[in-house]
Specification:
By secondary structure, this protein is an alpha/beta fold. It has a domain of 94 residues: Barwin-like endoglucanases. It contains three helices and six strands.
Amino acid sequence: MLPLLVPGCTPLIAPKEIPLSSVIPPPKKEAANPEELKVEQVGNASWYGPAQDGKETASGETFDQNELTAAHPTLPLGTKAVVTNLETGKSVTVRINDRGPYVKGRKIDLSRAAAQQIGMGKKGVAKVKIESRPRRKPTKKMTRPTKKRRAEPVAMRTDPPVLSPQ
């Protein structure tokens, strides 16, 4: 009978608390799926050309209305975006090199060449779908190639040769 009474006489000992993090492992951080990083927008596009041709863009390059470029208010400069005209079904890949449009209700301004490729040249405005993925950051630091310099011309004597007496 003594063994039965002993457990009742002993003081209660609280069980040791075990941190929850040691019992349940933290969730694994998965690499972001490229599909999740994809940006899709639907809205009106317009185009700009002759009035801006030759002017500096937000990226610092000179705007050329004959290149496949666009202005977008938030996409990072240098991002490639596929713009599809929802009326014609035609698509064009553009590079974002400028900021805009600054007209309310518009999502993107295309260069004249890009607008023509998707069939919105005459109308000026079209409903489009914009799809893009952020640019990948280069894994290695890239160095710019240096310009080759022309060799300096070697100085040439223009004096007539002088013969020394022998």
